[in-house]
Amino acid sequence: METAAKPRVIQLAEQLHADIEGRGLHSGEPYLGTADAAKMLGVSTTLANRAMQLLVQRNVLTRRQKRGTFVANGIHAGNERSIDRVHLVVNKACLATEGKMMDGVIVGIQSVLPHAEIEFNHLPDSEDAEWVSDLIATTARSPYADGFVLIRSSLTSQRLFQASGLPSVIFGSRFPSIQSLPSIDNDHFAAGKLLMTSLIQQGVKKIGVLMRDRILPGDHSFLDSIWKTAAEHGLTPSDLTVRFLPADDQAIQYATRDLIHLHEATGLICRSQPLVEAASRMLTTLQQPEAKKTKIVVSEVYGRSQARLPWKSIRTIDSPDSVGALLAKVLVEQSQGDAPQIPVRRLPVEMIEPTA
After folding, report:
1. According to CATH, what is the number of the domain 188-316?
2. Fold identical between 85-186+319-347 and 188-316?
3. In the structure, what pLDDT confidence band is assigned to residue 330 with cuts at 50, 70 and 90?
4. Which of 94, 107, 157, 178 is most solvent-facing, going by the fewest CB within 10 Å?
5. What does DSSP assign to residue 318?
6. How many CB atoms lie within 10 A of CB 306?
């Protein structure tokens, strides 16, 4: 497998770091300004400034207003600077409907970075390239060491953060073309297999699958697992019907009705809690006694406790605070110039029985 190329800004930062060491400079000594650094690197002042700011984030350089750029403490101290501020980058609508960010995750981040500020940055619903570019540019001018947690992020967002060289970790699915950003995500393949196996063991032969309309790589793994498990148990493609639906109760409910009436589904796999809640409300209104007996399982729910849930559901075995701590540790590794030990970490999952 080919080794992914480092983003250009990281390569330039490493060149500057090597130059500092080659000159034998120590903490507190002056270093090149942006124009001189650009001339040495043979790049624009904009790109040189981004590379220098990355070294500020790593505590190799420090910038003092109206005085210039100086070598910082981290040049000979293993780059021990931590993260001053953690940005949780998430679509506001996703945060409201999916409940992805649990309080426990934030607590976990703070357990590793107790003095770091935590702030939400809400992505626009669409066309996020300009917004992300502005956020990255603002961060590059900041004196703080910033880190970013990208939650259910788009390909555009992941590409821009990868190119920035800033400490960033994907909390969710990483797109295949993104090779330099670490990611932490549930094992979606295992989740699909657990849910499908559960319905088959309950005698279900016709299954409807309700998915979100915004598809991410984890959804591909989830569906791959469902199809594979169905085939292993003798089901055919005609026994499964998949629907991709917006976060709209009416759309979900009518799709559920069609799955029951037109496709004779006797079991439903729902990708998220909003999907399962809307589908369940529709089932209670249908007149056929068989409809009310429809078996339902759900993949993603709001919280780890899953109190009073009437459906079998998937839960991450790791607690939210331990996941938050893991996210923070990955950011710290990057801020110190280290590559994460495990670039793609899949969190193990388990099936939970109904609690209501």
Report:
1. 3.40.50.2300
2. yes
3. very high
4. 107
5. S
6. 19
